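Hey, I'm writing a tutorial for new members on how sequence and structure tokens pair up, and I'd like a real worked example in the thread rather than a made-up one. If someone can provide the structure for the chain below, I'll link this post from the tutorial.
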Amino acid sequence: MGLLDRLKRAASSTTGGTHVRPAEEAAPPRVSALPDRGDRAADELPLTPESTRPGDEDRARIKAGLAALEVEGVDVDDLTSLGEGLDRALSGWMTRHGEDHDGIVERYAIGIGEHLVRRTDLTWAVVTDVFGTDLAVSAGDFVVVPHNLVAVRWMRRETGWAPRVVGHLVDLRTRSR
């Protein structure tokens, strides 16, 4: 439909100075950021994240990730070392594309999570919410999914962020004790 046709239609649909939008021109429905809840009623969705302790498989993942970072010479207790290691890994991956990036994201996410566990009141947990189940660090309903922190910035090829972002989380959680 051309501009003039739309203007004519709008003029003919106006009643008392108020525009009445015909049904076929109704605004499209808003897209929800939440996943489809299926057949469950809204009151059945968890209002707060539900967490459990990591199982043997999750603890093995954490141990393996920390061991891999140690081999790279990354000190998980030092945010500068962690950030520089992540930046080197991203730069190397962009140059060579040799290693699967999922493995890199995994080990640096575990490194960031472990740094938060060592420096704050957060503990490792397997957290389930309306977005799914993830290995996370949490305290009550405060949840950080380190894989999300790393993966989103990896996709944007962002460097230099880890000391600032993780440092902020450390400051936030040590003040809340």
